[in-house]
Amino acid sequence: MVGTMANNGRIRSAFPVANGSKDLTPDSAPVSTAGSECGQVEFTREDVEALLNERIKYKSKFNYKERCENMMEYIKRLRLCIRWFQELELDYAFEQEKLKNALVLNEKHCADMEASLKHKEEELNMIIEVLRKNFESAQIQLAKEQTEKLAANDSLVKEKEARHAVEKAQSGLTEELGKAQGELQTANQRIQSVNDMYKLLQEYNSSLQLYNSKLQGDLDEAHETMKRGEKERTEIVENIGNLKGQFSALQDQLAASKASQDDIMKQKAELVNEVASLKVELQQAKDERDYHLTELKTLQTEANKYNDFKDTITELETTCSSQSNQIQELQDRLVSCDRRLQMSDLTTFEKMNEFEDQKQTIIDLKSRVEEAELKLVEGEKLRKKLHNTILELKGNIRVFCRVRPLLPGENNGDEGKTISYPASLELLGRGIDLMQNAQKHSFTFDKVFLPNTTQEDVFIEISQLVQSALDGYKVCIFAYGQTGSGKTYTMMGKPGNAEEKGLIPRCLEQIFETRQSLRSQGWKYELQVSMLEIYNETIRDLLSTNKEAVRTDNGVSPQKHAIKHDAHGNTHVAELTILDVKSSREVSFLLDHAARNRSVGKTQMNEQSSRSHFVFTLRISGVNESTEQQVQGVLNLIDLAGSERLSKSGSTGDRLKETQAINKSLSSLGDVIFALAKKDDHVPFRNSKLTYLLQPCLGGDSKTLMFVNIAPESSSTGESLCSLRFAARVNACEIGTPRRQTNIIKPLDRLSLG
């Protein structure tokens, strides 16, 4: 029957799963019929039920052959049905295994998706936490700034009240104070006018150079005012020293007067004792005289009776007259002792009056010393405020140009034709002109030092900037220029010559001297030093005691010093040696040690050419226990390697590799300055180790000063022009406003240098 139904073309659906699940979908694997006798025969539920319920009909009960044939036919169909079920079961098993594998893959994929989602959720939570912390720190910073603003207003009010009190108490200083207030008012008016002009010029960046040239006159006057303030401060310090000397002299006089007074009191006591003894002797003499007079009277009465005793009477009279003379002498001595006693009383009274006058003078001197010290502290605060205001007005990156003198053997005849200096009052000390191919190139900087300028004069111009490091600011000073232009001489000076010391030794001397003088105001400072060089784009630790770590044959340090910048703009170099220093002598020893380890070489342009960038870092941490204030400053002093042309230096071999690395890093520095000048969104600090190390100084909140060093000989005109153009571009850059790193210490806090 099944065969007949299949052959007759009846279309039937596939046999469903016995447990009542869905039929096989068209996507299921086809039923394998290879090697099967049933071929393409399919069975449905109705076919199976019909096959099982089929009753074989026989024509004759006794026709066993027919019955056997029918039975064989029925068994054959049952076998076909069973084989079809077996094949269908195999297909279902294969499909079930496939579905299990797919389920495992889906579960694994779901687990991976859950893990990635969890990881992303954690990252988002971390980002949210960082943003919350940044928001909280911003709120704290805003609160601190508001508190500082209120404190500044309160201090201003107190300063005005103190100034009025000083005017009432010290009539002699009224004129000087009025002059100082007038100068301060004029300086504030000028600064206010400069501020207004500066705000207007921010909208017109193209005229920034012209505005700076006009503004420099007022800034020079402000500098003069600050210098006069420094002179007054020096005079006040000298007056304090003189007053202290007078005070010590008066104390010595007071001690001497006390000693003399003690001597006078002793003499007075002796005189009083002597007068008392003389009075006793005088009384005894008077008693004897009375006795003798009485005896004389009795004798005279008896003499009248007895004239025989005249000789005895004469002797008694002689004795009485001698005793009268002794009494007169004793009386004279008593009068002289009384006079001496009165004179000693007068001297003692005069000494007491003189002692009181000296005591009052000492009290007045003490009050004057206290007022002078208070005025000195207020002047120091005013100096810091004016200095920071002038730096903000000038721009955070200032540029000083220094022209070195001609060396023996260089052509001196072309100096006047190559380099000249404007004589106008507006550009005096700030302008420089360079002639190249009969064309004049003019530049204006914050300061231009002539070839005859001494190291001391150069340092005076930057001394206030160095002082900012002790006040809690980050300060960076670096020297730029071609090789042989005097950068290392400017920064390090000439070893063994005190008058030709460079900026780095002089800065350290000033910091240690100021640190000592600020102890009287309650400040305590801790200093840490590190020195490194960048040689062929590799950082070397110049203070390392391991010589192999400092320098190897191939110029690669075995220690990898990674550069990292934290959220506060501080720079950290991994595995860099940082040493605590207590005196300038220790730092000088470390500088000599670093100079011996630094890479130098000989070229055709310089006998001792620096082949690396030298970076000196001084970390300063100060605490004032009386005001509970803490400051953290950083002073970076950098001697860059000089740019050079291969045609002039004649470098080969290792010198050639060094020259290529130096020029590449300086080119990266130029790209950074160019991006900052255009205010690009992306500044390529990571293009070199030098620019990445200087990132907080060039793009952060640091006070930065660049020295551009120029060689005066005519053969270096091209390199000098490139250096001056680069310096002008640096001078036009605007970076973040300098921020003082200060906070209030907690009771359990201690000094730490991070």
From TrEMBL:
<dbReference type="InterPro" id="IPR027417">
    <property type="entry name" value="P-loop_NTPase"/>
</dbReference>
<feature type="region of interest" description="Disordered">
    <location>
        <begin position="17"/>
        <end position="36"/>
    </location>
</feature>
<dbReference type="GO" id="GO:0005874">
    <property type="term" value="C:microtubule"/>
</dbReference>
<protein>
    <recommendedName>
        <fullName>Kinesin-like protein</fullName>
    </recommendedName>
</protein>
<feature type="binding site">
    <location>
        <begin position="481"/>
        <end position="488"/>
    </location>
    <ligand>
        <name>ATP</name>
    </ligand>
</feature>
<feature type="coiled-coil region">
    <location>
        <begin position="177"/>
        <end position="232"/>
    </location>
</feature>
<dbReference type="InterPro" id="IPR001752">
    <property type="entry name" value="Kinesin_motor_dom"/>
</dbReference>
<dbReference type="InterPro" id="IPR019821">
    <property type="entry name" value="Kinesin_motor_CS"/>
</dbReference>
<keyword id="KW-0963">Cytoplasm</keyword>
<keyword id="KW-0067">ATP-binding</keyword>
<dbReference type="Pfam" id="PF00225">
    <property type="entry name" value="Kinesin"/>
</dbReference>
<keyword id="KW-0206">Cytoskeleton</keyword>
<dbReference type="InterPro" id="IPR027640">
    <property type="entry name" value="Kinesin-like_fam"/>
</dbReference>
<keyword id="KW-0493">Microtubule</keyword>
<keyword id="KW-0547">Nucleotide-binding</keyword>
<dbReference type="GO" id="GO:0005524">
    <property type="term" value="F:ATP binding"/>
</dbReference>
<dbReference type="InterPro" id="IPR036961">
    <property type="entry name" value="Kinesin_motor_dom_sf"/>
</dbReference>
<keyword id="KW-0175">Coiled coil</keyword>
<keyword id="KW-0505">Motor protein</keyword>
<feature type="coiled-coil region">
    <location>
        <begin position="261"/>
        <end position="389"/>
    </location>
</feature>
<dbReference type="GO" id="GO:0003777">
    <property type="term" value="F:microtubule motor activity"/>
</dbReference>
<feature type="domain" description="Kinesin motor">
    <location>
        <begin position="396"/>
        <end position="733"/>
    </location>
</feature>
<comment type="similarity">
    <text>Belongs to the TRAFAC class myosin-kinesin ATPase superfamily. Kinesin family. KIN-14 subfamily.</text>
</comment>
<dbReference type="GO" id="GO:0007018">
    <property type="term" value="P:microtubule-based movement"/>
</dbReference>
<dbReference type="GO" id="GO:0008017">
    <property type="term" value="F:microtubule binding"/>
</dbReference>
